[in-house]
Write a structure and sequence with these properties.
The protein is of the alpha/beta class. Helices cover about 35% and strands about 15% of the residues. It has 12 helices and 12 strands. The longest helix has 20 residues. Bound molecules: (2R)-2,3-dihydroxypropanoic acid (DGY). (2R)-2,3-dihydroxypropanoic acid binds next to loops.
């Protein structure tokens, strides 16, 4: 009998490819241009994808035999979910495998933003260090961190912030019932914007969250407050963020994600010393990316073997 054919769209560690090859015929197209994937997709029953390999309508049309899409990411906003649903294609993600790495990166961005380290680094580079101190940042201890989204990653960020002496408030669609354990306190979105010294977004990109950080949201924040986006770029209206920084409505920003992504090198946000931008590296450590890819692989293998999937997504 023919072995099932799996296609790997994103660069994964060799150990992951080896694991898949124990169960399937595997084609790795991660180094090929997108327009050269068609031949591999023609008879593929499953793909291992990630947040930078769109599984859109055109992609699905090239894969008539597809039965499972396994994401090496938690987010799946780049997947045509109605298209999957219409064809009964199964979706899995890699939740649970990247919490600590993303929380570390998110909290690193909080420190960079609150301490104004982008300004300080630019100051040192430009020679102004010789003449005067760089502009001061703000204390973390005693400041209020506002987390929009308070799941596994949000609570892991809260633990790091609490170790620095920060107060934590959060906003979720439904208030949690474990504030005594997490040490967080629920706020409405507007209350949180007005109260937090650093506002961090960790929400998935959905029709409800797209553009939730707009001119009106930034206008409610403190002029000294900072904004951190570790979720998806389109949760924030990039023009509104730029206007908020230019007009002094907020004090700075740190971004792991942008809209568009990648952000072109000549984008005005890159020219600002009060903005720190990193290229969507929340989960980008050797260990975490391998764990994420291996979880995606285990989902594909379980599917082939007819076993329960480790991390299915209900769509
Ligand atoms: C995720 O898992 O969604 C991260 O953003 C990496 O893409």
């Amino acid at each position: 009998m023919d072995r099932p054919h799996l296609v790997v769209l994103t660069r994964v560690a060799p150990v992951v490819l080896d694991r898949l090859r124990e169960h399937a015929r595997v084609t790795d197209v991660s180094e090929l241009p997108r327009d050269a994937w068609g031949a591999a997709l023609a008879d593929a029953i499953g793909v291992l994808s990630s947040s930078n390999a769109p599984v859109d309508a055109a992609f699905l049309a090239e894969g008539p035999a597809l039965r499972i899409v396994a994401m090496q990411s938690v987010g799946y906003d780049n997947v045509d979910v109605p298209g999957l649903r219409a064809r009964g294609i199964v979706l899995t993600n890699s939740r649970g495998s990247l919490v600590e790495a993303v929380a570390d990166l998110t909290y690193a961005l909080v420190i960079l933003a609150v301490r104004r380290l982008g300004l300080a680094m630019a100051w040192a580079r430009s020679g102004r260090w010789m003449q005067a101190d760089a502009p001061y940042g703000h204390d973390l201890a005693g400041a209020t961190l506002g987390l929009i989204g308070f799941g596994a990653i949000g609570t892991a960020v809260a633990r790091r912030a609490q170790a620095s002496g920060m107060r934590v408030v959060y906003h979720t669609r439904t208030p949690r019932d474990d504030d005594a354990t997490t040490g967080g306190a629920y706020r409405t979105f507007e209350q949180l914007l007005r109260e937090a010294d650093c506002v961090v977004t960790l929400v998935p990109l959905t029709p409800q969250t797209r553009g939730m950080f707009d001119d009106a949201a930034f206008a409610q924040m403190k002029p000294t407050a900072t904004f951190v986006n570790a979720a998806r770029g389109a949760v924030c209206d990039t023009g509104a963020l730029l206007r908020a920084l230019e007009s002094g409505k907020i004090g700075g920003a740190a971004l792991d994600v942008t809209d568009p992504e990648p952000l072109p090198p000549d984008h005005p946000l890159f020219a600002r010393d009060d903005v720190v931008i990193v290229p969507h590296v929340g989960s980008a450590t050797d260990e975490t990316r391998t764990r994420m890819a291996m979880l995606a692989a285990e989902n594909l293998i379980a599917f082939i073997d007819g076993k329960p999937l480790p991390t299915p997504v209900a769509i």
